[in-house]
Amino acid sequence: MKKEQIEEIISKMTLHEKVLLCTGKNSWRTRDYEKLGIPSILVSDGTSGVRFQIGSDQPEEMSFYDSLGGSFDNEEAMSRTYRATCFPSGSAIASSWDTELIGEIGRRLAGECKELGINMLLGPGMNIHRHPLTARNFEYYSEDPVLTGEMASAIVSSVQHEGVGTCMKHFACHNSDSRRTRVNVTVSERALREIYLAGYERVVKKAHPVSLMSAYNKINGEEVSGNNRITRDILKGEWGFDGAIVCDWGAVKDPVEASKGCIDLQMPLSKSSAAYLEAAVEKGQLDEKLVDERAARILKLVYQLKEWEADWKEIQHVNSHELAVEAAAESMVLVQNENHMLPLKPKQGQKIAVLGHMAKEPKYQGTGCAAVHARQVDIPYDQIMPYLAECEASFAEGYLPDGSTTDELIKEAVQAAAEADQVIIFVGSFLPGEDDDYNRKDIQLPAGMVRMIEAVSEVNKNCVVVLSSGEVCEMPWRHRVSAVLLTWFSGEGMGSAIAEILFGKVSPSGRLANTVPERLQDTPAYLSFDGNVYEIPYAEDIYVGYRYYEKKGIMPAYPFGYGLSYTTFAYENLGVKEADGQTIVSVDVINTGDMAAKHVVELFIEPKMKTRLPRPVRELKAFRKIFLKPGEKKQIQFSLECRDFAYYDPKVKDWVVENGTYAIEICHDSMNVALASEITKSGEKYLVPLGYDCGFYEMFQYPEVRRMFYDFLVEQGLVTRDQVNDTLEKGIIWSFWAVRSYLDMNSNGLISFEAYNDFIDRANEVIRNMK
Ligand code: BGC
User: Fold this and answer.
1) Are 295 and 303 spatial neighbours (Cβ–Cβ below 8 Å)?
2) What is the pTM of this model?
3) Residues with catalytic roles
4) Which of 37, 558, 669, 687 has a 20 to 30 A CA-CA distance from 755?
5) Residue 11: per-residue pLDDT
6) Ligand 1 pocket: which of 53, 134, 369 to mutate (most atoms <8 Å of CB)?
């Protein structure tokens, strides 16, 4: 619908109607007005599958008492939730590094939304993994903004291409789930731009999402779902985001302030908010124009999604279980495989022990609003058994459902392992209950599981550990076993995918989307992450994830980007050239082993010169996943933009590329370079304005300003024209004081602060015009 038509509809609406439109009709619908021809759209979670509760979009009124204790993921809630395909959660699918695969998942998700009449999916989740204790990290992709932004762009594009809207969340810096509706994050402008906003920026520019969800927290003292610079000036202003901002459920604390911050749709229904907004306009405390603007953006979203809905073809259910299995297999990361223990090749009469309660009751998805009522859950034990038809297979629980164990269970597991040729051990990590203190309390496996691994590996070294978790875990026991497969929460297909990988039907091809630390204490945000506080300083700044480990030289257990395969790959012919303002990189990839497999090509950039602002050692800038048959060779091309070489300079208030040499690196992971080539950038002009407190070093970098400065000294009578010479320059340039302090101490009051400040203003005018 055209802008003018929307304006006309708004002109016919009463203030009361408009403020009500600014909040939901109920928890999942926008408000409709039949007489005005305004329809309603239906929205629903979630991030790894559609979660929609039967009848939940109906009731407008619910008594306070009835609303108590609502859970999304207990048995009762699940029984009221429609069945849907449970795909790998965010941290799992990010480990596939496969944008085509996630695009296909997006198409299926859109199909399942359409089956239920859902116009907009509340996903993807794409906050940066700042710290592994954040409980909802399982819903988010990675510690890296490029991997996050690329995966999210692919799914947003494909869902929307099918006629269903997306609402990426939770914008931004929503990195603690304890006190999550009240915490204030203190973060530098540079970290904000380079790490926390960069993924969102990529999606806004690449995939044009129709909406975005503003988070519960504050950033630098401003409510993100209130009047704040980040939604208003950066998202809408600088990036030109023209979708609607939908607040997280219950995130708006002051609807008047939210209107000033361009928060459009306040979800869910809040009659008191609407009344408060109405009164504010009537009392002249809020310009009605701001309410009109919100209404216009909400209507734009509603009509756009309704137009898309009108194009929905006949809706047919597509069974996506096979895709869920494929996606699960691609998400898994093999991090250890001593003596090529995997793939297992069970021979007749061999004895295999399967251990661990989770073999039969897998942890395949996360909790809360991300929980999906899965259609068909593959149980690892059941999927493994057919491969062991000719073997002697035994099973022992090893630990109880809560992760604790008993002497008896350990004894059984040890006995089974001692008698077996090979041992498959299933373990996993639980999430805490979702309440106001919803962060993981540590990143260790439950004690009973660790005890079992230790006891079992004492009697048999041929153990493969299959570990499922939403986020990374400490693995101090890993050296005691031969192989470790990280499966994450990879959804309903996890059981089959584990079997396919263990027995070599497919090669593992996942790569770590997050660094696995040796210990929690080694993680970048360790000193400034405590779930139970309201103030969170992002003290590690831009050094999040691998950026920190590389810079500090801390060896993690496994680096970002790492993952093993059953075949081998080689790179050759790395070519780097400049064309039309882009840097074109090409590289040949060859499958040098004897199994067909997928492989991730990772491109990092490393500045080789001393840079003006400190920078990470290297940063991921592009990647591609390809499939190669044995002996097959493919050439891969990447186009790098200027921005890929840049950092954000808060003083310049822009991205700058420094002159110098950069290495273009094709890497095995963030620590290991396979092939590199260097390129020199002449750089863009970056002009940092001078502060009143600048030093001679900053001032004299601009020859024009240097000349002006000497003129100024002459004008002010501090020196004569002929005293402006090398001796003068030598005499002042050594000063470690700021120029103003130096003059103050040495000019006998001849140069007033006002005159000096005026000089700096003039100098900055000249600098601005240099652009
Ligand atoms: C969650 C969102 C979710 C919304 C609706 C909020 O509490 O943070 O991720 O989309 O509820 O369920």
Assistant:
1) no
2) 0.94
3) 248
4) 687
5) 97
6) 369
